[in-house]
Design goal:
The protein has helices at about 15-30, 35-40, 65-80, 90-100, 160-165, 190-205, 215-225, 230-235, 235-250, 265-280, 285-305, 310-330, and strands spanning about 5, 45-50, 60-65, 80-85, 110, 130-140, 145, 155-160, 180-185. The protein is of the alpha+beta class. The longest helix is centred in the last third of the chain and has 25 residues, at about 310-330.
Length: about 325
C-alpha cells in the first residue's frame, strides 16, 4: 500500500521543530508565514535551566521552548485538535502515523537521530544528533517520505532506518517513537491577535514564570551557580554539563557548531516580521535582544576556556538585557 499528500513546503535550515507546522498552516489556511514567525508564535524566545541530580548531565540549559511544549502551545493558539503518541513500540507508532496520514492529518515525527537519515550525507552514519523532526507526507511498503526543513524536495527514509532513527528518548524533546498530530482549522484567528497572545505569554514566562527553572529567573540562577559546578558536581560531571550548555548556545543545538545565537536571532526575526502586521513598534525590544545575542559567543568562549566566572558574568548580562527586552514588549502589547 502507498499514500502521498502534496503539501506546500518552505525550506529553512535549523527550523525542524516548527517547519512541519509551518507547512501545515499554509496547506490548511493559505498563510505563507516564515519558519521564524512560527518559532516566535510557538514561544521560541524562552530559557530553561534544569537541576536534576539523577539526570545525565545533572545540569541542563535550553534556549527557546522545548519542542513538545512548542507543538502543544501552537495547537492551542490555533484552535487545533492535538494528539501525541510516544514511548510505544515501533509497529504501533508507525501504524498510528499511517492512520493519521490516511485521514489527511500528517504527523510530525521526532525526535529523530540524524545518524540514521540517509539524505544528510555529512551526518549519516557519522554523528549522532538525536534532536531532529520531520513531517510525514507519504509512505509505501518499505519507505517513509518526509518534508524536512533542510531540503526543498520530499526525502525518503527506508523504514529500517526510521526504526533506528525514531528509537531515541531525549529529555525535553520526547520519548522514543514520538509523533504529534495537529489538525489545524482552515480559518485561523486574526494574525494580530495571535501575535499579541504569543508575545504576552512569552513575556509572562520570561518575566513572571510559575517556577524559577524557566525564564529570566532561570538565567539568573544559572549565572549564580555555573562557576560552582566543578566543586559541587565534580570535574567530570561538571564538564558534561558545560558541554551541554555549549551545545545549546548554538541554533540549532550543535556541540561542534559556531552559530552562537541561543536562538535569539529567530525570535528577533519573528518580532521584525510581526511588527508591521501587529502595528506595534518592537524596535527597542529588538535592540535589547540583539545585545543579549551579542553576549552569547563570549559565554561560549569562556566555557571553552574554562573561565566559568566570565561565563557567569555573560549570563548575568544576558539576563539584564532580556529583562529590558521583555518589559518593553509587555509595554508594547498594552499590559
Amino acid at each position: 500500500m502507498a499514500l502521498w499528500l502534496e503539501i506546500p513546503h518552505r525550506r529553512q535550515d535549523g527550523m525542524c521543530p516548527v517547519n512541519g507546522i509551518r507547512d501545515l498552516v499554509q496547506w490548511r489556511s493559505g498563510e505563507n508565514w516564515s519558519n521564524e514567525f512560527l518559532w516566535g508564535l510557538g514561544q521560541g524566545g524562552g530559557f530553561t535551566y534544569l537541576r536534576i541530580n539523577v539526570a545525565d548531565p545533572p545540569r541542563q540549559m535550553y534556549t527557546g521552548n522545548a519542542t513538545p511544549r512548542q507543538h502543544r502551545y501552537l495547537a492551542e493558539l490555533f484552535g487545533a485538535e492535538f494528539a501525541e503518541v510516544e514511548n510505544r513500540a515501533f509497529p504501533f507508532a508507525w501504524a498510528r502515523a499511517q492512520e493519521a496520514l490516511a485521514r489527511e492529518k500528517p504527523p510530525i515525527l521526532g525526535p529523530l537521530d540524524m545518524f540514521h537519515l540517509p539524505y544528510y550525507a555529512g551526518i549519516y552514519h557519522q554523528r549522532h544528533i538525536p534532536i531532529h523532526f520531520a513531517l510525514l507526507v507519504g509512505y509505501d511498503g518499505a519507505t517513509a517520505y518526509v518534508q524536512d526543513t533542510g531540503f526543498e524536495a520530499v526525502q525518503p527514509i527506508p523504514l529500517a532506518e526510521l526504526r533506528l532513527a525514531w528509537n531515541v528518548s531525549v529529555p525535553g524533546l520526547g520519548k522514543r517513537n514520538r509523533l504529534a498530530i495537529l489538525d489545524l482549522p482552515a480559518a485561523l484567528p486574526p494574525t494580530a491577535e495571535l501575535i499579541r497572545k504569543a508575545v504576552m505569554d512569552q513575556c509572562q514566562s520570561m518575566l513572571r514564570p510559575p517556577v524559577s527553572l524557566i525564564g529570566i529567573p532561570a538565567m539568573k540562577k544559572l549565572a549564580a551557580e555555573i562557576a560552582g559546578w566543578p566543586e559541587e558536581l565534580g570535574e567530570a560531571r561538571a564538564e558534561k554539563c558545560l558541554r551541554q550548555v555549549r551545545e545549546y548556545l548554538n541554533s540549532p543545538p550543535d556541540a561542534e557548531g559556531s552559530h552562537l545565537t541561543a536562538g535569539r536571532d529567530r525570535y528577533i526575526a519573528f518580532l521584525q516580521e510581526a511588527q508591521p502586521i501587529s502595528g506595534w513598534d518592537f524596535s527597542r525590544a529588538v535592540e535589547w535582544l540583539c545585545q543579549s545575542m551579542e553576549a552569547v559567543p563570549g559565554v561560549a568562549a569562556a566555557i571553552q576556556h574554562k573561565d566559568l566566572n566570565q561565563a557567569a558574568a555573560g549570563f548575568a548580562r544576558m539576563a539584564n538585557f532580556e529583562t529590558n527586552a521583555f518589559q518593553e514588549l509587555s509595554r508594547c502589547c498594552g499590559e
